[in-house]
Amino acid sequence: MSQTTSTIPITASGEPVWELPSRGVVGMACLIIAEAAIFIIFVVAYIFYMGKSLSGPTPQQVLELPIFGTICLLSSSFTVHYAVSALRKDNLRGCILGLGSTVLLGAIFLATTAQEWYHLIHDHGLTITTNLFGTTYYSLVGLHATHVVVGLIMLTLAFGLALRGNVHEAHSEKLEVLSLYWHFVDAVWVVVFLVVYVIGR
Amino acid sequence: MANANPVWEAIDETPTTRPRRLVLEVVHDWVTTVDHKKIGLMYIAYALIFLVIAGIEAMLIRIQLAVPNNHFVSPQVFNRLFTMHGTTMVFFVGMPILFGFGNYLVPLMIGARDMAFPRLNAFSFWISAFGGILLYFSYIGGSGLYGAGSAPDIGWFAYAPLTAKVFSPGHSTDYWTLAVFLSGIGSVGTALNIVTTTLCLRCKGMKLSRMPLLVWLYLVQGGLVFVAVGPLTAAQIMLLLDRYLGSHFFDTQAGGSAVLWMHFFWIFGHPEVYVLVLPAFAFVNEIVPVFSRKAIFGYPAMVAASVGIGFISLSVWAHHMFTVGLGAAGNTFFVFATMVISVPTGIKIFNWLATIWGGKIIFAVPMMFCVAFLFQFLIAGLTGIMLSAAPFDWQLSASYFVIAHFHYVLVGAILTALFGAFYYWYPKVTGRMMNETLGKWHFWLFIIGFHLTFDFMHIPGLLGMPRRIYTYEAGRGWDNLNLIVSIGGFVQAIGILIFVYNLIRSRTQGDIAGHDPWDAWTLEWAVPSPPPSYNFAVEPTVNSRRPLWDLKHPEDPDSDYE
Amino acid sequence: MTPALLQRRSRFATPARALFCGMSLFVGTAFAKSPALSPTNMFDAAATPAHSIVGLSTLVLSVTLGIFLVVGGLLLYALIRYRHRPEDSTREPAQIYGSNQIELSWTVIPILIVVMLFLSTTRIILGTEAIPKPASALDVTVIGHQFWWEYRYPKLGIVTANELHIPISDPSKPTPTYLEMSSADVAHSFWVPRLAGKMDVIPNRLNTMWVDPPQPGLYLGQCAQYCGTQHAKMLLRVYADTPEQFAAWAAQQKQSAQQNLTNPVAAEGREVFLHSACINCHTVAGTIANGRFGPDLTHLASRDTIGAGPIKNTPENLRSWIDDPNIMKPGALMPSMHLNQHDLDVITAYLTTLQ
Ligand code: HEA
Ligand code: HEA
Ligand code: CUA
Ligand SMILES: [Cu+2]
Prior knowledge:
Helix content of chain A is about 70%, strand content about 0%. With about 200 residues, chain A is mostly helical.
């Protein structure tokens, strides 16, 4: 019985260096592909039902461009990028600053969305059940907002850890993976913005 | 085998004696494990249990349809049976069993010690397992407080607006939605893990162009899972919103579209069938060369064909919708896209043919199943081509011809290849061989039953028998055929029963296998059987696609030809 | 290896040809135009769309059969020829890693076959879906309901259910029937294999198909899209009538229900009917019954079947149906009205007068 014979091939060392991509980045890339597929379907549904509502209100009547929120969200991409590169240089204070402003900007974005929804529900009586516009609008924007919330929770966690001084240069790869997610959430917003507020109006 | 290689230094001498442990300890060990091999085995065990459940559902369907005007089950029960059978087989047998093999084999074949994210791996398994349990819980909770016994009855593709609250009151549809949703999350998790493991944890020298084809196919499958399962998840979310928050995605009364659901489902559904078949190809890619004693023919073409199938399969979904009235232009496009997929698939068939050509074919049980796979997949693909000719499909769609086509792939190709894989890797997993004689009984009974069932099932379809009917009138020319089909189903069941018995029996009574019983060439055969939890005592280095061939044939190593 | 592969192919060409002939014979006899085989045999085509599908199917079937015989034959040959024999030496066979020329040939040949199949398929698609509607066509609106069919003839002012009457179409001066289809609830599918391929009947969507049977007769089919509990008993009956028969049928269907019943039992039944919940769901033209949820009953007695096909229209069956539809069609959306025996008798008597 050859139970104990192992035949692992081993060759002499001195081969060229064997380098493979970081699994955090690859894993996050995979997740982003899967998430992108979900968003595409919601966007397609939005476009498909554009102008097909049987009753009002229509987007033309009630939607306003969320310029301020958009600026906040997009600039948070820069701040999180700054946080990562600061951490790479072991600049903990820069990292805290970057993370803090990212969380702040993200929170402002969420607040503007909440305000917009309040306005739509309260002043225009548009809910998810009102018509096809309500259905597709709330689900698409809501799905995006959910992702913002998830991202904010993780960023806040990182921010808290950084404040307590538990974050070091060694963690820069993990933070980079998180920042990739945040960039993705931003990119999705660009699409949502174009479809819902620019084309859809 | 020559012994000049430093390989023997890597021998792992740790004794494998295990102290007896309490049942609870064993259970705790399995429940909390993050070892890819144990998770793989749990996936497989879980899928086998569901295979038996869904198989029994199929048998009940066949009893009901054996004769015309039968009253064995009521229409309501029948509709639940085929919904549960289809959903279970696709989401809780097919997906988990294939992921189980992937989990077990991919790290071993690329010389890694575990998956890239072991805890995510465990999470994915448990979440899909929970999904399956939730689906069957609907038998208890489907009517909410109103009573028991109402599983979903909407069909496995759950066309809108039948799933709307008006037409499907109660909660059974929600159980279906949530179960499929959870299984989707688990699938994405596992696929993510397999892809990342493949890209990031290969051992030294294991370039992409040296990976075993099995790993390549799992890589493509993983990619397909990302882009295919996402749309299904999105559609399930929309359905839940419709049912619980009163939105109107698929509400035809409020201007919603029933066809939109069809698109979303099949954007998932078609790639899904390739998600299921690619691992079957993967097994055949490993088994056929070993039992033909030849290297796989046309490795680069095989890789290219797999990737090609992956991409093309994303653009063919509407061949499930030829009867929806897409218009001549839409139909024509999807006819073309669908037919084109036979080119890369043909390349695979021909390369397998060329691999056995000039070999020394050993008809051990794994190879027998692969041979059956080759013939059956060929026929299944050709009936697929018939369906892809849209006008022909206007007659055949939603008839028993379609049922026969896809069981030919799902049972005749995938399940058959899976059985081969069981016989092939069982010695690695348990250290013991499965019984050959029982294996042959299993093979012949299963194959004869399969052909009785699914060969004859094509004909009622051509004679106008629609699917999903709980009974039919006499005198339509369907009676005798259905009887044969039903009998065949039971012959299959006996075959599978023998298989299950063989699995259990060989665990304790099989011949001791040793680490490399098939004289094979890929890395998993280099470690002891069963492999230790860390897989490799020393990280291996490979110089070619067949590291163990190089080792066994130092005079003529593969690495010379690269 | 290449020449060997090519040489050997010719050797079993003869058995392959023999097998091909045998199989064609088998398929040919199985699906020959024998109505005895099945009244819903798609190869027993009786209208232009079905005919053109049979033409395409025959082509596709023979091409795929050819591929099967060639590839399957090669496989079989290789398995037998290259099996391991006990007397073989223990050396491994020659390792061959691939060949670009061979790879190319089995890429190009399938591509050519695919293009050929695609072009012939496209021809049939265009010939069925993309041809203009002639002025002589008859229009019928088909509305699918959970488990029955409603037919409306907008130009003739006829509304009926479950049994579709159409005129035959003389090929020299065609009078095809165009079906405009939609659904009142969930998705269904209209499939009468001898006339045409199926077409889905989907709510909030209009689909069209056409049929033109030249021979009079009854053509059967059934709903082909799962639509709920009684999908199985949502049958289709299409009566192709000669022009005279059709004109007579249409004239009769246009009339309202007879008002002055001579039979006192039926007259009483009429009163009971008009005072029960039936009228919420059923229409009898000329009375206050104008429900739309169930089939139109104005000319119920002129139909051969009830319950959308599966039940013969006899007084006993009718009585049992009204007593409790769930006995013969469990899951049908008509509730049992819990009528007493007397009311059942008189309503049945009334309904049988609705010629
Ligand atoms: C793993 C599963 C699997 C696989 C691999 C396939 C493979 C294929 N399928 Fe199948 N299919 C299903 C599972 C699968 N299918 C399921 C589950 C359904 C029904 C779902 C439901 O309705 O419930 C379905 C339904 C289905 C339909 C819709 C029928 C309908 O509902 O109306 C169609 C139509 O085009 C189709 C076509 C094809 C084609 C063209 C292939 C091709 O990939 C086949 C390609 C292979 C070959 C062609 C053979 C080898 C090639 C050669 C030897 C080269 C030479 C050949 C030529 C040049 C032609 N399939
Ligand atoms: C992987 C997928 C898979 C597999 C393996 C199978 C396997 C089988 N299927 Fe299934 N089937 C589907 C996927 C699959 N099916 C899908 C997706 C549908 C469509 C559903 C829908 O329309 O919504 C479908 C629908 C379907 C129908 C059509 C129902 C209808 O439209 O009305 C039928 C009818 O005969 C059928 C039969 C069978 C049979 C006889 C087997 C056999 O091969 C099963 C053999 C296995 C066993 C029997 C289990 C093991 C047995 C034992 C351990 C012994 C103990 C048991 C007994 C002795 C009874 N299947
Ligand atoms: Cu109507 Cu099925
Ligand atoms: Cu498909």
